[in-house]
Amino acid sequence: MTTSDSNKAIYRVVINAPIETVWSELVKTDQVLAFFFGAVCKTPEQLEVGAPVAMQTTNGKYRSVVGKVLDFSPPHRYAHTFKFTNHDDAPCTVTYELKEVAEGVEFSLITTNVPVGTKTEKGMAQGGPFIVNTFKSVVENGRPTFGGRLMLGIIGLVQPLTPKVCRSENWSFEKIMEL
Q1: At what angle are helices 146-158 and 119-141 packed, to 10 degrees?
Q2: Greatest Cα-to-Cα distance within the chain, rounded to the nearest angstrom
Q3: Beta-carbon contacts of residue 59 (< 8 Å; ≥ 6 apart)
């Protein structure tokens, strides 16, 4: 399910798993996260309010997304600023909300303050459905859907074409804190 207006978009699925399992998968660091396009979530110490975060390639050469943790309330809410490193657009906010329901956990990915008419807006509109659907598959089945695995294979193949602006040395945690 997806809803959106000019300032907020919500991508939602119900995941058949306990809330602790869903939360644990969402906040993994230092492991490949298929639902985040095969990136690894890095932070200098641990995920907590105020900590910088970076989604980087498995070899550590590139950081595609950076931000700062705004809310970290296990196992129900995690929010951070969000900036694609290959776009000059201002950061927006991404919030993950988990709510227990009869069928399992309602997982919502909510984007707010996405700069209108930007590459960030287009990227979030394309990436949101992939993230929630791949996340559901990973939690419920231990791996992405077939289509998700194909997408991850293509992403791996084009990694050498990543713009130089995304190189990790351009996005230190100190620089991320200044955003």
Answers
A1: 130
A2: 47
A3: none
- Helix ranges (H only) for the chain are 19-26, 119-141, 146-158, 173-177
Helix, strand, coil percentages (3-state) for the chain, rounded to 5, are: 35, 35, 30
C-beta of residue 50 within 8 angstroms of C-beta of residue 148:
no
Higher pLDDT, 172 or 3: 172
Global confidence as pTM: 0.91
For residues 63 and 46, give the distance between their C-alpha atoms in angstroms, rounded to a whole number.
18
CA distance 35 to 109: 12
Tokens representing 107 are 């997982």
Confirm if 48 and 147 have CB atoms less than 8 A apart.
Answer: no
Residue 37, SS3? coil
Per residue in 27-45, pLDDT (tens digit) is 999 899 999 999 999 999 9
Structure token pair of residue 78: 């995690």
The closest alpha carbon to 95, from 110, 112, 106, belongs to 110
Q: Please work out, in degrees rounded to the nearest 5, the angle formed at the alpha carbon of residue 153 by the alpha carbons of 27 and 115.
A: 55
How far is residue 116's CA from residue 97's CA, in Å, rounded to a whole number?
Answer: 23
Q: Can you tell me the distance from the alpha carbon of 56 to that of 8, in angstroms, rounded to the nearest whole number?
A: 26
